[in-house]
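REQUEST ID: PR-0412
SUBMITTED BY: lab tech R.K.
PRIORITY: routine
TASK: structure prediction, single protein chain
INPUT:
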Amino acid sequence: MATYVILSRFSPEAFKDPKDFKQLAATVAEKIKSECRGVTWKDSYATLGRFDVVDIVEASDVKQVEKAAMIIRAYGHSTTETMEGTPWKEFLATL
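STATUS: complete
OUTPUT:
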């Protein structure tokens, strides 16, 4: 399985009250879980930089990751940037 990093940034219109974000996140997670069964969520991080969320996922089919990113965009009112990542130890082993 390949590892992917999904970087997301919320739209200012995504939610009015930060408390509303919990429901939005739950809705997005449930949609991805039901429609992207080939994607395994490894971890998620809230960040304070250019992106609001960093998600680490694994999948054997990039199309499933693309679909998950589109769900984040549509239902999460976010922009995303997705890239394949190589675990550091594997990367070093190739040098």
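NOTES: The chain has one domain: 2-93.
REVIEWED BY: pending
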